[in-house]
Amino acid sequence: MSSETDYKDLEMLARRGRWLAISTVAGSGAGHVGGPFSAMDILVALYFRVMKIDPKEPRMPARDRFILSKGHSSIGQYSVMALRGFLPVEELKTFDKGGSRLQGHPDVTRLPGLETSTGSLGQGLSVGLGIALGARLRGEKFQTFVMIGDGELQEGMIWEALHIAPRYRLGNLTAILDWNGLQQFGWVLAINEEHRGDRRDPWTGIDLRGIFEKLGWRCIEIDGHDFAQIVPALEAAKASGESDQPTMIIAHTIKGKGVHFTEGKHEWHSKVATKDELRVVAKELGIEEAIA
Amino acid sequence: MKALRDVFGDTLVDLGKTNPNLVVLDADLANSTKADKFAVAHPDRFLEMGIAEQNFVGVAVGLASMGFIPWLSSFTVFFTHRAIDPIRMLVAQTHANVKIGAAYAGLMTGLTGKTHQDVQDIAIMRAMPDMTVLAPADAAEGEALIRWATEFDGPVYMRLARDAAPDLFDKNYRFIPGKTLLLREGADVLMISTGPQSVRCVEAADLLAKQGISAGVLHVPSIKPVKKDEIINAAEKSKLIVTVEEHTIYGGLGGLVAEVLSEASPRKVVRLGIEDRWGESAPNDYLLDQFRMSAPRLCERMQKLVG
After folding, report:
1. Cα distance from B51 to chain A (closest Cα, Å)?
2. What is the pLDDT at residue A4?
3. Do B124 and B271 have their domain in common?
4. Does the predicted TM-score (pTM) go above 0.80?
5. What CATH number should be reported for the domain holding residue B130?
6. How close does chain B come to A161, measured CA to CA in Å?
7. Three-state DSSP class for A165?
8. Do A55 and A85 contact (CB within 8 A), yes or no?
9. Where are the beta strands (DSSP E) in chain A?
């Protein structure tokens, strides 16, 4: 089976998720776009194909866990959770508004289906490590996935977790690096420097895979926008849950992926689309009801 | 008389025998904090997390979400300064069932100096919503508070001095959250204190009695929550209120008492503690003398204040 036929449903959901994210941000007058778009395909694969979860029973003990450590991409996660049935799609309109379950950054005390709160960067992998360690102590078999960002990878706390997780041989822990190569502001590109983004890759010239492997992580490197690579990588990580090595999925992604004018532009880290821009977005993503 | 760090280690060992969910996380200081006793008694539930305090706070939150009761063990300064952000966002904001065993609190840190002396922790932790903040004085109270914190469902910050203080309490001690303890009644001056400094206040009160000064001592083991009415009632029975703490005079117990009284029963409150300066490496007696926190020094200061 070709990847096109195999993953058509996921591709459609990812387009829909991108539309919900950017249109919700437009409705709220603030929020992030670039990060949710780079993460979207992986989020869809996790929620619709890989993770054992039940929207009707979000605290089900045997569920797979997911933590979005790069919490500012929350609207990406909320959009996918809405599509999956954890919350009504209509509720996305409350994003960032007073009293909402959909806070600017994920708040575990408000929204069932989250595993912890994130937002201050670099902290989610440590919580995932604790959950995976707890699962091992309890003899439970689920997988814990944590998505981290390449910008966030500059935080020291992540490297503490990267160092400790292999020590406890946590095959039931999977980190996913959304390596989109851009951050909120970053550094200017050097003259003649080539990059998929309009600013410098925070890890340019650094062999991250080599570092992770030396620390003891099993690494799988993928195109983070190709479901034919995403799904098998996530499934392989899950299948090695009882092994003695945590998995790092290095996903090469494009910030703002999915719409031509947001791709590779650091200014779309956090930006509100105009009505005219939304029309273009709807057309490019093929959101029929919004094109009209 | 038993050092609070030994109380910490021994109490956790004992609790671990009956509570299979109790786990202890160390940041490579177990033989200082005495968490190593737990490592010997319950090796499967002792989790060495290395010299990485931010991460071990997050790991504890994950373990708590799996139904474990994690006790974190490190030096106070590494919690309230190095790891304060994960404590804020992951522990307090999510009301995670994580217990913070903050060892070597205050000035007397075993000759380590200002780098390791934390005299700002009460101010920092009591400003944090969702956090319970406790500071036991002696062995009996320390054990009672550690037992209570383990049963309590929610984040607890436990301020533990390193060394032994003379016993104030016995095995009949029962902890009630927020409750204050009037250790001495006094009409001329009321010293309000917390942690082992309360013991030195009691000794000072005894010295003052010999000089004809009626000095009271109100002990506050529960910084947060605290029964404000008890502070107000005790204050209204004394001519002068003096807070005494092994902590900066800014925002700690002195701040708490001044806030409570200024709103409910305005009166002069003198705050004694560490003024706007750092400490240094020195034996305990030297530090207590330099910072005028020993019983004889407190006695002198009270005489001047009352005089």
Report:
1. 9
2. 54
3. no
4. yes
5. 3.40.50.970
6. 6
7. helix
8. yes
9. 65-68, 144-149, 173-179, 218-223, 247-252
Average pLDDT of every residue of chain A: 96
Clarify whether residues B76 and B197 are in a common domain: no
- Per domain, the residue ranges of chain A are 3-291
**Closest to B128 (Cα-Cα) out of B91, B88, B160, B96:** B88
C-beta atoms of A137 and B68 within 8 A: yes
Interface touch A164/B66, C-beta < 8 Å: no
Q: B90 in a domain, yes or no?
A: yes
Q: What's the domain count of chain B?
A: 2
Q: What ipTM does the predicted assembly reach?
A: 0.97
Would you call B55 and A127 a contact, using CB atoms and an 8 Å cutoff? no
Shared domain for B94 and B219, answered yes or no, is: no
Q: For residue B20, what are the domain limits?
A: 4-159
What DSSP letter does each residue of A138-160 carry, written as one string? HT----EEEEEETTGGGSHHHHH
Question: Model confidence over B84-124: pLDDT tens digits?
Answer: 999 999 999 999 999 999 999 999 999 999 999 999 999 99
- Quick one: pLDDT at residue A107? 98
The pLDDT of A282-286, averaged and rounded, is 97
Quick one: CATH architecture of A3-291?
Answer: 3-Layer(aba) Sandwich (3.40)
Query: Nearest-CA residue of chain A relative to B52?
Result: A160
Q: Which residue has the higher pLDDT, A289 or B185?
A: B185
Asked if residue B227 and residue B279 are part of one domain, the reply reads: yes
**Do both B79 and B217 map to the same domain?**
no
Tell me the pLDDT tens digit for each residue of B225-279.
Answer: 999 999 999 999 999 999 999 999 999 999 999 999 999 999 999 999 999 999 9
How sure is the predictor about B68, in pLDDT bands with cuts at 50, 70 and 90? very high
Last residue of a domain, one of B126, B159, B192: B159
Tokens of B218: 């109100």
Give the model confidence (pLDDT) of B209-233 as tens digits. 999 999 999 999 999 999 999 999 9
B167 in any annotated domain: no
Residues 6 or more apart whose Cβ sits within 8 Å of residue A220: A233, A236, A237, A247, A248, A249, A250
- φ/ψ of residue A81, rounded to 5: -60, -35
Residue B19 sits in the same domain as residue B135: yes
DSSP A114: B
The answer on B155 and B20 residing in a single domain is: yes
Report the residue from B23, B45, B89 with minimal CB separation from A120: B89
Average pLDDT over residues A114-135: 98
In order of A12, A13, A42, A150, the CA distances from A227 in angstroms are 12, 12, 8, 20
